[in-house]
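Exam revision sheet. Question 4 asks you to relate a sequence to its structure. Input first:
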Amino acid sequence: MTKSILLVGVGGQGTILASKLLTTGLMEAGYDVKMSEIHGMSQRGGSVSSQVRYGDKVESPVIEIGGADMLVSFEKMEALRWLEYLKPEGKVVVNDYEIASMPIITGKADYPTGIIEELSGKAQTTVIDAARQAEELGNPKVMNVILLGTIIQAMKLNDIDWTKIIKDNVKPQFVDLNLKALEVGMNLA
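Answer key, structure tokens:
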């Protein structure tokens, strides 16, 4: 049975790194894994998505509308933008974090209100404040690994050696920090 996880966010949030760590861990665990990325103006704070599909045999890297088992949103407006990709029984993990898009920055639009309430009304939703958790760990850049921890816990992927994955893929000076971030995320889910 193939499982599908959609990671969405804004350029610069570490969405792609989180999906690469996830993909590496799944491959090392023996799953057939397909990953695809979309970088929409990511260097300018645009939307970024990463689709990770895994199982015994994965035919396509693309998640169809209504096909994701889990939607993990690094920024809350992105969760609404991608919600149609979630299965009816799928889970949403949303980072309670706002990044203003260009229309909002230039005053042409307002950041929408009530996003968390709308998500909660449409899907099984877990809200976390990964930014605050990352600040408490001393580095806002580990928000992505905190969110990765929520995926590992929610999808029951705890039997994979995530310590090894982090050590093999993160600069040595950041390994301990990222391991702490992973643990925080797993405890939040």
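Marking note for examiners. The two ends are 23 Å apart (CA to CA).
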